[in-house]
Amino acid sequence: MNFNVNGIFNPQNRFWSFIEKIVNLCVLSFLWLLFSLPIVTAGAATTAMFQYTLKLARDEEGYVWQTFWKGFKQNFVQATVLWILMAAAGAFLVLDLYCCQFLPFPGTVKWAARVVLVSLLFVYLLTSLYVFPLAAFFRVTLKKAVVHSFIMAVGNLYVSVTILVIYGIFAVITYFLPEFFMVWFTIASYASSHLFGSVFRKYMENDIKTEL
């Protein structure tokens, strides 16, 4: 068996490429946290994060800071509005679900209302998974970002559920190791970016212009 010592220290081998990706994701996680701290900028920071992870999934990542900062500036207005709209919609649905228990109606009506609201929350959750990655990948209007996110989420349901499971797994990890929550979120987003990319490429031949 031939053993090449130089191969171990070759920066192009798989081990060092893996280490480089982990380091870049850690740097990316801190950038995401830092730029999300004002809360209102969380949407722009998340879009910028996906701008990098989608490229990383295609081995076209470039430099972390340059890619992140470019994505943050380019998508700031649209991503911020999307963030506010999605947060408001989610809060509205959760509040409605909570208020169901106080409705002066028979139990059957309350149960039916809960089923409808839970179904809407599930669709909302799946749609929200796609909004920021889609805004990072495509140049679309605000309306199309929401509409296409819904279409892709529902039209690729098995992929959407898989992505949801990925985030669920890392949510469990975060529960036990909350100190590194931003790292787990970024790693989950990178893992999901492979699936997002496969879905997005199916729509690239349509009238949506790509950003990457």
Automatic annotation (TrEMBL):
Keyword Transmembrane listed: yes
Pfam family, one: DUF624
UniProt cross-references to InterPro entries, sorted A to Z: DUF624 (IPR006938)
Source organism superkingdom: Bacteria
Transmembrane segments: 30-54, 75-95, 115-138, 150-175, 181-200
Coiled coil (residue ranges): none
Keywords (A to Z) from UniProt: Membrane, Transmembrane, Transmembrane helix
Protein name from the UniProt record: DUF624 domain-containing protein
Biological source species: Candidatus Caccovicinus merdipullorum
